[in-house]
Design goal:
This protein is an alpha/beta fold and about 230 residues long. Helix content is about 30%, strand content about 30%. Bound molecules: adenosine-5'-diphosphate (ADP) and magnesium ion (MG).
Length: about 230
């Protein structure tokens, strides 16, 4: 088992104003799988992803990635862990405004032990003609490609994507999903993608549904559809 998540609980707030963001969430996944976490807004998707990514800590439960217990790590150990093993793609692209596409991607390779070749990756991302532009000179889709590049350039074991397509029109959305699929096929990256869009889940190997902080179903997707053929 590549990832094992067991009985994760997370509350926000205090007694008289408490949100039970996650109530005993458990699932596991194999290496190289693409898992989609599907659920309406407020169901706990981002909280779960942030706990898996070591950005937030849970109140109880365990997260093991490749046999390492992320939940038991100190803040410092988690920083190193994230740097060595995880790539993160956010809905808001979080690019550095005064750096070029190439430089933004290179930032992601910084301190990595097995970084991909940046020039080659820029080709895979379809950003060759744009590599010397800064983010304000790019479309939303090009910015999201750059942020995906920054996340995968270190060749992470696990790529976490939080609504990576939320702000995109449907054509661009499809292109970004095709890119994520290509990353999975070319580099064997394990991927967890969060979305509230039912249609996107069609491309997943496994679909996990969340509702009110609980996992309500966890199923292998028997009718997997290529990203390019999704109805979006
Ligand atoms: N930092 C926070 N402080 C207080 N409540 C939060 C915080 N982050 C998330 N929540 C609450 O936890 C619940 C789950 O949020 P979230 O994981 O962001 O859901 P999703 O990503 O599915 O939209 C929501 O009710 C949200 O308001
Ligand atoms: Mg969210």
């Amino acid at each position: 088992m590549f990832i094992e998540i067991k009985d994760i609980k997370k509350d926000y707030g205090t007694e008289d104003n408490i949100t039970h963001a996650l109530k005993q969430a458990s699932f596991s996944m194999d290496k190289g799988e693409m898992v989609v976490l599907l659920g309406p807004s407020g169901s706990g998707k981002s909280t779960l992803l942030n706990i898996i990514g070591g950005i937030e800590s849970s109140d109880s439960g365990k997260v093991e990635i490749n046999g390492e217990a992320v939940h038991g790590m100190s803040e410092k150990e988690r920083v190193v862990y994230r740097r060595n093993h995880l790539g993160y793609v956010f809905q808001s692209y979080n690019l550095i405004p005064n750096l070029t596409v190439r430089e933004n991607i290179e930032v992601g390779a910084y301190l990595s032990k097995n970084a991909l070749n940046v020039g080659e990756l820029i080709d895979v991302l379809g950003l060759k003609q744009h590599k010397d532009k800064i983010p304000s000179q790019l479309s939303g889709g090009q910015q999201q490609r750059t942020s995906i590049g920054r996340a995968i350039v270190k060749n992470p074991d696990l790529l976490l994507c939080d609504e990576p397509t939320g702000a995109l029109d449907s054509d661009t959305l499809k292109q970004i999903l095709e890119l994520i699929e290509k990353v999975k096929e070319k580099y064997g990256t394990s991927i967890i993608m969060v979305t509230h869009n039912e249609n996107i889940a069609g491309m997943a190997d496994r679909i996990i549904r969340l509702k009110d902080g609980k996992i309500v179903s966890d199923e292998r997707n028997e009718n997997r559809i290529k990203a390019g053929e999704l109805e979006l």
